[in-house]
Design goal:
The complex is a heterodimer of chains A (132) and B (128). With 132 residues, chain A is mostly helical. Chain A is built from four helices and no strands. In chain A, helix 1 packs antiparallel against helix 2 (56-67). The N and C termini of chain A lie far apart (73 Å). Chain B contains five helices and no strands. Chain B has 128 residues and is mostly helical. Chain B has one domain (23-125): Fumarate reductase/succinate dehydrogenase, transmembrane subunit (3 helical TM bundles of succinate and fumarate reductases), CATH 1.20.1300. Chain B: It is a multi-pass membrane protein.
């Protein structure tokens, strides 16, 4: 018979509080966080498009919010989350095809994802402001 | 040769211990691939209608190409985000009852978001 009392004394596999934070690990966590943020953020799109379908009066309220400073900051953050999650997904595709699993490649891909998402977000918002 | 511990029936079904096969794994990658061009289009669409007001957005969505593309954005994104959140729930929630409740909530949320957006796009697309 198995001794159940010994179960709790078994060593656990290392987890978040045990590991020293590393870039690749933080990128994995951020991929989940950005995914979750995008998930919740779809409610903003629901608000905006349902208001548009309801009529101009409703739309002005929603559109006014997204035009406010708070709204613009949320959209800026949402742009970064989207682009970061997208580049992170492309990184996963590279891994799925069997490339980039080495230590140096992983580090390079992590840095590239982070830098790329920041640069692309700024570029998108330069276009947003120019076309305003 | 390594012994296969699966039963002959299990091997034929090929669904593994989760009894769901690789369906979710594949669909997550399929929608990830479609999300890349679709969400880039989505960003361009939002930039193109900024500041045009209600009339501008309605006019844009009454172009069938925009309406169809936006419907594809919604379907692809909603399928992808539902599977993604399911993985997160399954990874971090271990109490069986709570996990089932959250998985149900996840599906309800994805269906609600998807239906609300599809209805809105169609209503505007068909003429407000």
């Amino acid at each position: 018979m198995a001794d159940l009392s010994r179960k709790s004394a078994r060593p656990l596999s290392p987890h978040l509080q045990i590991y020293r934070p590393m870039l690749t690990m933080m990128m994995s966590i951020v991929h989940r966080i950005t995914g979750s943020a995008l998930y919740v953020g779809t409610l903003l799109l629901v608000w905006w498009l349902v208001a548009a379908a309801a009529g101009p009066a409703y739309f002005e309220v929603a559109d006014g919010f997204f035009g406010s400073i708070v709204g613009q900051l949320i959209l800026f953050g949402y742009t970064w989350a989207l682009l970061h999650h997208m580049l992170g997904g492309i990184r996963h595709f590279i891994w799925d095809f069997g490339h980039g699993h080495g230590a140096e490649a992983r580090e390079l891909l992590a840095k590239g994802t982070l830098a790329g998402s920041i640069v692309l977000t700024i570029l998108v918002w330069i276009v947003v402001i120019i076309l305003r | 040769m390594k012994a296969d511990i699966r039963t002959p029936l299990g091997r034929v079904r090929g669904l593994g211990s989760a009894r769901d096969g690789t369906g979710h794994f594949w669909r997550q990658r399929l929608t990830a691939a479609s999300n890349v061009p679709l969400l880039l289009y989505f960003v361009v669409f939002l930039i193109s209608v900024q500041g045009t007001g209600h009339a501008g957005l309605v006019a844009a969505l009454q172009n069938p190409l925009n309406a169809i593309a936006m419907l594809l954005v919604v379907i692809s994104a909603v399928v992808h985000m539902r599977i993604g959140m399911q993985v997160i729930i399954e990874d971090y929630v271990h109490a069986e009852g709570l996990k089932i409740l959250l998985l149900m909530g996840n599906t309800f949320f994805a269906v609600f978001v998807g239906l609300a957006l599809v209805f809105s796009i169609l209503k505007i697309g068909f003429g407000g």
